[in-house]
Structures are given as structure tokens and as C-alpha cells.
Amino acid sequence: MSAKIFDDILAKGIRQGQVPARTAKAREWYRTQAQKMVKAGSTARKVSGESLTSTRTADRTTKTPIIGNMYTFKYDPKHKDTLPYYDRYPLIFPINKAKGGILGINFHYLPPTLRAQLMDALYSATNNKDYDENTRLKISYEILNSASRFRFFKPTVKHYLTSHMKTPLIYINPAEWDVALFLPTAQFVGANKQKVYADSRRIALRG
Question: What b/e string do you get for 161-170 counting C-beta neighbours within 10 Å, with b at 16 or more?
């Protein structure tokens, strides 16, 4: 698959006048298209975390994350034997530097409805409204924790060690955020997604 699914969906959207991320209607359109495409026969078999992280073009890969950009990568946790479960192919926004790596919010831990609601809230924290390679989120743990509109972020925060990233970070362009959000690239180890979603929903909606 590499990044072709992004190109296909974005091209279709532009033809239909759907400018990525600019309006709630456009965001919903791209999210729906991502879900439709992965249900379509051969496309479904090609869409995975492994296929997306195999994208190694120079404009997509980096070893140095920038806070507020979106990335995916393959991950092998240091303490995987004691974790209840983990995601082998995180989809994250880094929010803070942390010892040996970064803190990131991994959308895969949220069920689709909460995932969309959190992303909608995060659009209010972009540094511009161009949604190009210069666009990023102006966020940190402190900012997310201080506003109720971001409350669904809590079960998504994970500490990722650079030494345990098994691929380079694959950059997701802001125009692609809503597509990436609903591609089936999560790969949970230790539990199925229903268990993960139930735990996350309980944490996100607590208090």
C-alpha cells in the first residue's frame, strides 16, 4: 500500500471539492472514505500498520519527531512482557519530550467515535489553517489536561522510547490526518480492540 491510499482518497476528495480538514463536513467525508476503502476487497488486505510503515521515501521518514506532527512507526516496548497490551503500530501526535523518547497521544486506543471527537477538538489547536507541511498542533500534556474539550486524550498518552522504535517515524501530512485516523493500522498485542476500547472509554469518560 505504502502511501498510495492517501493519494487515492485525497485525489477523489479534491475532485469533489472536499478541501482536507477545512470544515467539519470535509473531515467527516475523508474519515468515511477511509473506512469505505478498507472494506473494499483487495484494498482491505493491503491496509495495515506494516504496509504503511514500509513507506521509506525521504519526504516521509525521520528519526527526529516534531511536537504536534502526526507519525506512525513500528514499536516493540521495553516492558512488553509486563504490559497488559500494547499497539505495535502507533499513530501519534508527540506532545512532550520524555526520558529516552517522547510522550505521544496514540489515537488507536480510542474507539472511532471518541477518536473523531478528540481530533475535532485538536483542530482548534493548530498553528495555522492551511493544513500543509507547515501545520502542526500547538499542544503539550499541560495544555491537553487543562481543557475539558480535550478530555478524551487521557487513555491515549504513552511513553515511547526511541531505542525501541523499529522503523523510522513515518510522517503523516496534515491533509491526511482524517484518513489516517480511520485506517485499520493498529495491531494490539495482549488484548483485542474491544477490550482496549472498553478500558479507554472508561478512563476517558471518568469524572
Answer: beeebebbbb
